[in-house]
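WP5 quarterly update. Target: Putative holin-like toxin. Source organism: Vagococcus hydrophili. Length: 34 aa.
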Amino acid sequence: MSTSEALQLMIAFGSFTLTLVSTIVLILKNDKKK
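Structure tokens (predicted):
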């Protein structure tokens, strides 16, 4: 695996993790309102 491929994989995984975390936070905030 080349360095650029590894970098793209890390960026893709990082953005996926950020999206997942922000989604969970939004769900938790909505639950607290109820």
